[in-house]
Structure formats: C-alpha cells, structure tokens
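Teaching assistant here, posting this on the class forum so everyone can see the example we discussed in section. The complex has two components, and the goal was to see what a joint structure prediction looks like when all of them are supplied at once.
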Amino acid sequence: MNSKAAQDNRSEALVAESLSHIRIVLINTTHPGNIGATARAMKVMGLKSLHLVTPKLFPCAEATARASGADDLLQHAVVHNSLDAALAGCSLVLGTSARLRSLPMPQLDVRMAAERALAEGRPEASGAQDVAVLFGRERYGLTNDEMQRCNQLVHIDTNPEYGSLNLAQAVQVVAYELRMKAIGGAGVELTPPDWVPVDAGQMERLFVHLEETLLQIEFLNPDQPKRLMMRLRRLFNRARPDQNEINILRGILAASQRAAKKREH
Amino acid sequence: MNSKAAQDNRSEALVAESLSHIRIVLINTTHPGNIGATARAMKVMGLKSLHLVTPKLFPCAEATARASGADDLLQHAVVHNSLDAALAGCSLVLGTSARLRSLPMPQLDVRMAAERALAEGRPEASGAQDVAVLFGRERYGLTNDEMQRCNQLVHIDTNPEYGSLNLAQAVQVVAYELRMKAIGGAGVELTPPDWVPVDAGQMERLFVHLEETLLQIEFLNPDQPKRLMMRLRRLFNRARPDQNEINILRGILAASQRAAKKREH
C-alpha cells in the first residue's frame, strides 16, 4: 500500500470513529430491498451501525442483493422487537419526517441535525451515548407515538408538489450530511496534488514577458498598451497558473518571439 | 387551497426559478432505470431540466417505472447525439467524478459546486447561460475528453474503502445541495458588471485556434500535442474567460500567426 492510500485509511479511520456513535434505525420497513439500499447508502458515507425495529422481512436475499458490497452492515445489523429496545443506550433521538401540518413540533433541517448528532458525545467524558436517527415506514413514515420519542424532528426540504423521497434516498441525504460534518467540509476547493504554487514575483515576470511579446508581434499598440494588459492581467491572475503552467506560457511566448524574429532576417 | 399551501407554492416557485438554469446531463447511461431514478431525484429537489447524451436505451418503460411520478421530467428530457450539443447554451460546465490520481484537476466539493452553480446567472442582466452538471457512465464515469470540457470537477467525498455511489445516489446528493443553496439564498459571489459569459462552443474554437497557432510557431510537437493541450485546456477552463477575453486571446493568436507567416516569405 503506498503512502497516500495509507494516509487515506488513517483519515477514514478518524471519520469512521466520529460517526461510530450514530445509529440508523429503520422502523417496520416493508420492502427488504430498501434495507439493502440503506446499508449501501450508509457504508458509502462511512456509517456502520444499522438497527431494524420489526422489519417485515429480514434477513432476505433481496436485501443482500441491493446492499451490493455493503452486506457486512446487514450481517452486523441489530434486529429489535420494539423501538424501546432500539433506543436503549441512546441519549439523543432524531426522527425524520415530512413537514407536519396537524401536529407541529420543533424541526431541524438535515444540516443542523448532523451538527447536533456529531456534537453529541463530545467530549467523551460527558458520558453521552449513541445518537439514533429514526426512519419510518415507506408509505407512512413515523407514527405520532414514535415521534414523541424524539428529541427533535428532522426535515429534508423538498418540492412541496412532489416531495416523496424514498427511504434509501432519505438515508443517503442524511448520511451525506453526517459525513460532511465529520470531515469538516465547509465547501472547499481542493488543490490538485501536483500543484506547485508560485510567488507573486513570477506573475510579474510573466506579464513583462507577455507585454514584450505582444509588442513584438505587433498585437499591442505601443502607445496604448495599458488597457489590454490590464485585461490580460485580470484573466491570468484569476486563472492562478501554477509553476508548470507558467513555464508552458513562457515557453509559448518565447516560441512566438523566435517565430517573429526570423521574419526580421 | 389554504393560505399556507398557497404560500408554499409561491416560495417553491421562487426556488424552482433559481434552479431553472441548471441542467443535469447524463452521458451514455447504460441502465434506463437509472434515468428514471435520476428524474425522481431531481424533481423531489425542484430541478427540472434533464439532458441525455446518447443514452443506451431511451425512452423505455423501465425508466418511466423508476421515475415514479416524475415522468414529466422524462417527457421533457432532451436527448442529444453529442456532448457538444448538450452543452450549447451553457456558460458553466461542472463534471462529477471520483477523485483522480493520474490527471489531477482542481476539484470542488458538492457544496461549493452548488454555490458556483447558483451564482451563475446573478444578476440576471449579466447574460449568463445555463449550468451543466455532467454525470458519466455507471461503471466508468466521465472520459478524459469529457472532463476537459469542464470548468471544474465536482467530487463527492466518500469512504475510500467503499466509495461506489450509484448514479441516482450521486444525482440525489448533488440535487440536494443545489436545493439547500437555493433555499438558503445568502452569500453568493456576484459576477462583475462587465461580464459577458460565453457558450461552451466558443471555448472549443479557442482551443482549436490555440493548437493551430502553437503548431505553427513550432511550440507544440505535432507528434505529441495532447499532453500540453490538456494542461492548457485545464488552465483556460479554470480561468473562465468571458467574451471580451476570448476576443483578446484569439487576437493574440492571430497576431502571432501573422508574425510567424511573414517569416515564410
């Protein structure tokens, strides 16, 4: 294993650790395929702990098939006879639900729910236990009684004209936000590994060379170079060429100068 | 309709409007069911504009079945013979990909990509066109050529030991972040007032002209033009030149060609 892969594994171990106290709890799931799809949605985001309350049919070949490589999560899934049993050892219970009109309760969006879930159990000495995230039946969601076991309800904002996220999609979105919180992804742009940043002085030398060349090939008007150079500076400053790219650009300028010079002979 | 529902519809109209310039582009999809599942993942988050480049099998009953109430998106989906055709009218092209090790390009996480996508077209007078978000084949993702049509690549962070998000799941996560940005509505980067966005076809013509010129001034090795052109494409795609800047760059290329041509006399 090369060192980058080893580094990835160490980082992933940390991510998995920070997500390890979070249980995905499916209540009374009708279609075993959805249990498999849930396992897949969880594993891809680094979640491991699947709990099932009175699933209609489990274990089941269809669940294993839909899990597609995430069946280790199915093998370790805990099956309970009651929600009480599934919540033993949990100090925070979040219930996913469509927006309620008849019985309004405080609701979090997924992003804030993820923040609360990750924060539970920090610091470890606080003695906090697991976090349970509840998902109800495919057709009916959670019952009123089940909602009343929740500290907070979690709402995934959807198109009110067509709001039906299926179970695995809802788990996917929640699992994604949990992972985003765990990795600290605040919306970043990742630099490529071969990036060689340049000193501002290099950019100046590039612009000097560029202006020289543009004069030589008679593109720039020597009496009025400023406006065009300003626009070109804006373009290349925005592009943020790295060292390799600057070398290429200056090579192009030099070749252009050579090709033009030959004319003078 | 009660007043809360009416309010929801007005708010949703605003959300849908702010997402309406975003196209989900699926390239060469193998399984029609995934096209249906994509339509569903889109509609639930308020996206409408589905574009398909040479899908293996479409229209298809399986796509309609998996769309589950979102088949209006399938009916309005646009099928193209080429990626060029799908990108006509787009001024920003984002490509989803697993992390690249062999050919690094700048990558955004989904949250930042959503920010850029929503910001394109603000303010409306800027004339920016549609945003295309590209998804590749189920097994192989996007080809290198397709990635080179992208201004930026988008990476969904996943468990390195089990990173395989299926196509519909990837679309779901991206659609979710786009909606989150649309309903949040704060902190976007505004385009400068003199910005004149360009169609993706213009970028292609620039690269053709650039390659011609680099061959002519003997900078490019005619037997091995690809690697260097790839790097230059990466630089200029990232820079996102507007119409004025493209005009300047092509003027420079023309001047360089003239200066070199004179040598031949």
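For the discussion questions: The CA atoms of residues 107 and 162 of chain A lie 20 Å apart. The first helix of chain A runs from residue 3 to 19. Think about how each of these relates to the inputs above.
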